Amino acid sequence: MIYVFLFLLLLYGVIRYDVNGNIQNRLYYFYYIVLLLTFVSGLSYRLGADTVVYMAEYDEYKSLYNSYCQNFNFLDEGRQLGWVLLLSIVKTIGGSFSFLKLLCSLWINFVYANFIFKHTKYVFTALLLYYFAFYTNSNFEIMRESISISFFLLAFDDFLQKKWLKYYLYATAAFLFHESAIFLFLLPLFSKLNIAKHFIVYGLIVLFIAFYNFDLNTILANLLYIDVKALDKLEGYLLSENYGTSNNISTIKYLLICISCVLPLFSFYVLFKNNIRKEYAFFAILYAFICALMYKMPIFLRFNNYIIIIILILYVDVFVLISKKIFSAKYIKWAFLFFVLCYCMYKSTYYMSSTMCPDSVKKYSRYYPYSSIFTKKIDEQRELSHRTNLNR
User: What is the model's pTM?
Assistant: First the structure.
């Protein structure tokens, strides 16, 4: 019920402020919802597969005054230095895992929300898309990576303005929390590509990767015979059944591939033709490219996590533009709402799919029914998924 309540609050914000243009108390209402999203996440109990793993690990960390902590080798433990220091600081001040979770939720959601508020005037629509597309993943699953993503969003304007020193400082901070942030060090190199001039070529490459049947798993795994402990976990992902290539692609999955790859390409084309957000073109192509790779090997999803909020903002602009171009003034608002709700329905199909382990459990069971640190209710379906995940 709490998730429906949040949805209705967001939908009200979309209609009142984004569609009807009301500005009274707009800022207060926006951050009121952000605060609710933060508390729903921060005060949750055993929601999300990764969160349970972090809960199990938390007791192993020591305070900064402990001699073990002073000799800690984060490479051996598979955790980045920034994360280790954060947990040790929380331990030092006597904080519990619940305090850590709330602290991370505050940081993550407010950085994400500030980015949305700064980069689009349709803030409630973007926040609604974030709620459906990324909220549960960023708040209940990828806590460490979400912190890394927040540093990238803080560095985004520096990236656009080519202030590379500040950008790389943020990228370094991001890498201190999750190894996937190595991706951020490569972004400036790819940003030099002339996206507009070679749009058709890049688009065809994306579609070829998405639909041509080749074993990307084997190709990349053969490149990882490097004796560096930080790469061990990545290599394990590449060679595992759960994170490796899937050759069983159904008709529905082909449809999802098509939507995931074509929608950002289409968004770039529409916005570029109308001279809107040309500086974002690189991210639209990159997102489509990584989506294509993701269906060959799901671990590439980690890289798209960094730019998904940027893409959601692009989608909002596209929904607005198409509504104004195609429909008469009388129906623009309804058309815009229709596009927004269609995207939300598309993203909600994720929760109806089965988890990897066990496959009898639906993904929504990781987050529903909701349980807080005050009630600590245990759901058997969710715990079945958690036990399997912890024993892998």
Answer: 0.85
